[in-house]
Amino acid sequence: MSSNDKDFALQPIPQDKRKGFLSMFFVMLGFTFFSSSMVAGGTLGQGLGMSEFIVIILIGNLILGVYASLLGWVGAKTGLTTHLLTSYSFGTKGSYLTSFLLSAIQVGWFGVGVATFALMVNKATGINLTLLIILSGILMTSTAYLGMKALTVLSIVAVPAIAILGSYSIFEATENVGGFSALMGMEPTESMAYTVALTTCIGSFIGGATLTADFTRFSKTKKSGFITTFIAFFIGNSLMFAFGMVGSLTTGFADISDMMLAQGLIIPAILVLGLNIWSTNDNSLYTAGLGFSHITKFPKDKIVIVNGLLGTVLSMVVYNNFISWLTLLGTTIPSIGAIIIADYFLLRRKDGYDHSAIRSLNANAIVAWVIGILAGNFMPGIPPVNAIATAVIVYTFAVILKKVVVRVPATTR
Known about the structure:
The protein has one domain: Hydantoin permease (Orthogonal Bundle), CATH 1.10.4160.10. The protein is an all-alpha fold. The N and C termini lie far apart (46 Å). The protein is globular and about 70 Å long. It contains 20 helices and no strands.
């Protein structure tokens, strides 16, 4: 392990390197202030009335918040990345597969973010698209390369700016349609089933939620890791959905930056979109670097540069063709986090994580993961919830069964 690895990609973070509540609060909010959540909120706005929308985002983000917060608790308790945690629950070889999937998805989202920002600025200013893509990729890669300190500074700047400018734009849009009472009275243009609405809400950021431990491992206490994560996913993500919902109803644009452009707020629109995507993209590139570092054992910061270059070069290709594949891969993710949680509370909570206990492959986790994926794709109901619940049940049953089988021969001798 390199002594200059300031982000401790391959070992637990020492207690003296941990961060306080406020720093982690901004980092986690910066992670969840995501433009795609606004788009998802706009989609819900077309199919739900305002009262139904409020219920859906509260329930959906409560489920998402609890799932992410439990992973946040485990990360803060152990100081381990998501990818090191999967070494214990899935085994070394199994963790390489999960790390590759999680990291590839994050590099893909980085490319989508770069293209989204470059296209919007090109549309607003006429600046050459290729130049914008190159500059955006370099800037976003640079802060991810610098690590957690840079992510914290960026989040401290981005979170208040997005919240203040976004709230101002939403207030103006609401006033233009007759105020809050008129907004509450607006009827949806389409109908949407509650299960579809909850799936949209939970599924929009379940991939990011699964990687929560990559950030909360810097928390000084497990309580801090849990609370900052819950606030970010329950309140922060709900705010992004609300921005998208109101924008879609009042101006026809779900993304707050598009709405600002329609309002003539060109500079604030570029600033908000830039900070929004930058803060989330950096987190995506950071977690992808940790994942590929886990697989290759190369330094995380060097891998971040490669990932950033790859995501930037392929950004337009990814933007135009990759989202459906990312969505497909997204169905594989929830059960990974579910198994990490179940493994911790069933096997590791009291005894901790002993490196000598890592196996090459944990068949119980692989089976539970596969069954969770099948449940997420084919069971009726809410796919992410089906995947999480099924994976937990199957893994728990397998662990209990193994304990019984090991205990019975010992008692019959």
